[in-house]
Structure formats: C-alpha cells, structure tokens
Amino acid sequence: MAEYAVSAEPLPTQDEMRELVERAQAGDRDALEELYLRHFDRVYSYLHMSVGNRHDAEDLTMKTFLRMLESIGRFRWQSVPFSAWLFRIAHNLAMDHFRAARRWQPEEDVPEPEDRQEASAEEAAMEAIGQASMLELIDSLSHDQRDVLTLKFVFSFSNGETASILGKTEGAVKSLQHRALATLQKQIRAR
C-alpha cells in the first residue's frame, strides 16, 4: 500500500474550519489541500472499518475527496460541522458500494484513527475487553448499530452529527446506540 502524507495536527477550531472552508470554496488550493490532509486519516479509517478491506477503502476515500472537491461550493454551514458533511459523503459512497457489490470482505487489521480524543467510560470498557473480541461482538450487531457505535465512539461524533451522517433522526441514533450497547452487554455477560 502506498504511503500517504497526512497531518498529525488536531482538527482546527470551528472558526478556523469556517475560514478554511471559505478559502477552499473560493478556490484556494492550499485550503483544499489542508482540508484533505486534516481529514484523510479519519475518513480512510471510517471507510476501512465500513467496507472491511484496504483496496476498497482507498478507492472510496479518493472518491470521497473528489466528491468534496466537486461539491464544496454547495456546502453551507447549518447544524452540522464540515467533518460531518464529509463523513456523510463517505457513508453514502460506502452504502452505494455495498448496494453495487453486495459483499463484505473483512480484514483482520482495522486501523484506528490517529487523533483520538480522551477516552470516555464506554471507550474504556470497550478497550478493556480487547479489540479482537470486541470486533467479533460488534460484527454480530446490525449494520446501523455498527455505524452508530463507530461514528460515536471511534470518531467522537455527537448524536446530531451521527444522525446527519447516517440520514437518521437523533432519536433513532440514541435508540440504535442503546440497543447496540444492551446487546453487547448481554453478549459480554454470556462469555
């Protein structure tokens, strides 16, 4: 696999992101490059976790950023941040990929995003169980439940941002999260 130059810097503040997006919308190539560099790792990790293999994840990541380039002029600041808009593009491309191919080819190694936030209680519990066994448990969940847990706990999106990415209501996201965690808790007790 090719090496990618990606930024290890934290994501910019909301004001810095607004300024960066505005510059990108005005055609500033440096701003477009910075948006790409700052979001590449997280988008690639999400897509790799979604589609299960590196080749398709790389292809879909490139398509995500091409779609970003094509439609950044239409992006408008509303109730969700730019990163949620970008993840919505990635999610839609992953769903199109599954509809077209009707396949799931998981790999053993699923990359973790580089810029993880401070661990929450749920994340600490997940890490305590062990990544391999947790991935096995998560694999038994519905696709929607896996998406919600991935976006909320791996990529630290809020309920509103997760709802926007998945095209669901916040209530549906909360319900999916609750059912997923209850199912995982039952499976853990059974072990």
Task: Describe what this molecule looks like in 3D.
With 191 residues, the protein is mainly α. 69% of the residues lie in helices and 0% in strands. The protein has helices spanning 14-25, 29-51, 54-71, 82-101, 121-129, 131-139, 143-154, 159-166, 170-190. It starts with 13 loop residues before the first helix and ends with a helix.
Concise account of the structure shown:
With 191 residues, the protein is an all-alpha fold. The chain is built from 9 helices and no strands.
- Cα gyration radius (Å): 17 Å
Total strands: the figure is 0
CATH class call of the largest domain? Mainly Alpha
The number of distinct structural domains comes to: 2
Helix coverage percent: 55-70%
Shape: globular
Note the total helix count.
9
Say what the CATH topology of the largest domain is: Rna Polymerase Sigma Factor, Chain: A
C-alpha termini separation: 37 Å
